[in-house]
Structure formats: C-alpha cells, structure tokens
Design a protein that fits this description.
alpha+beta, Metallo-beta-lactamase, Chain A, six-stranded mixed sheet, five-stranded mixed sheet, 13 strands, 25% helix, binds zinc ion
Amino acid sequence: MKAMIVPVTAFAQNCSILWCEETMQGAVVDPGGDIAEVEAAAKRKGVEIVKILLTHGHVDHAAGTTALKQIFDVPVEGPHEEDAFLLEALPETARGYGFPPCESFTPDRWLKEGDTVSFGNVTLEVLHCPGHTPGHVVFFDRKDKLAVVGDVLFQGSVGRTDFPRGNAKDLVSSIRNKLFPLGDEVIFIPGHGPLSSFGDERRSNPYVGDRAF
Ligand SMILES: [Zn+2]
Ligand SMILES: [Zn+2]
C-alpha cells in the first residue's frame, strides 16, 4: 500500500490518500475540506478513488465528505455509529468554525471493532478507539505496519477529550490496550502534525508513554 498526505482545512488536518500499487485503486481518509486539492492529488498520482473512509465525525475530518462523494460517486465507510450525533451536527458545526457550508449525512456503512475495509488488493483492519469521540475508529494495515489514527494519538501528545462525549480514560485505554500492542515498529499517520511510531510514543509520549504507567 502507498500513502500520501494532503493537509486540508484551517486545522491543517492530515487528509490521506491510501492506494493499492497493483490496481491503483485507493481511498481518501478524512476529507475535511479543500476537496479540489484532494482530487488533484489523487489525479497526479494516477489513483482511482473507490472509497471514502472516516476516522471520526469532527468537522475538520468529515466536512468535505458529501462534496467528495458527489465527485467520485463512491461509498463512505466509517466512523463507528457512536459518532452519528457529530455527523448530524456537521452543518451547524461548520458554520461555527467558519467552514464552507456542508450537509449532514449517514455513511453507507458504519464500522465496528473487527471489521475490515478494502480497496484494490489492500485490506485494512478496523479498531474502535473511543475517547476523543465515542465513535472514533483507526485503520490498520498489518502487512505494511501502517496505522491511520485520526485524533487518537499524535507525536508527543494525545487527542483532546474535552469535546462532547470525550472520555480521557477511554482514550488512554484505546491507545495502550489497542494501538500499542500492534507493535513498536508500526508507523502512524495522525490527524494533525508529523508521523511517528508506536514505539517512539511508548518511549517518550508524556501522556501515554510507558513511564507514565
Ligand atoms: Zn477530532
Ligand atoms: Zn482533527
């Protein structure tokens, strides 16, 4: 699997394009906005977008979903149904943050722990990782040891839990009991900021590193 990041919205959200090198079919993860740039990036790489994946329902991750779906006419998969209240509130949240107008929507498929999503010959595992939002999911490519973690974990930090239905205890448990066991060598793409590995965060993250426990 290949991956590239297109930073979108005023929040510099890491929208990622993931694709299968054998078929050149791919997925857009978290199209928060700046859809023209996402479309152009996929075109430049020669990737045929066949799916939209969402880690969670926050506006900087999901607000461009319906616009992108209109362009590519592809299914939207994720997040977990617990984030339905966020997707329903998208139009007013977008207004509040000064985003372009967007529609609320229901994804074609809600995801849950143990599900898989696929495009081309790539299959990703789905982990339900609540805490930042109750319906947050993480996508994991076990073959290439790459995880797309949204706003669960960042280099040197963790996702905020002060938003509606955030839960700090759940967040720590998601990271330490679900993500870290995937392996120190796993590289992750966070929703914001630079890439890191689970091993590096175990060693040095002040919130969830081994020294904090
Ligand atoms: Zn978020
Ligand atoms: Zn975010």
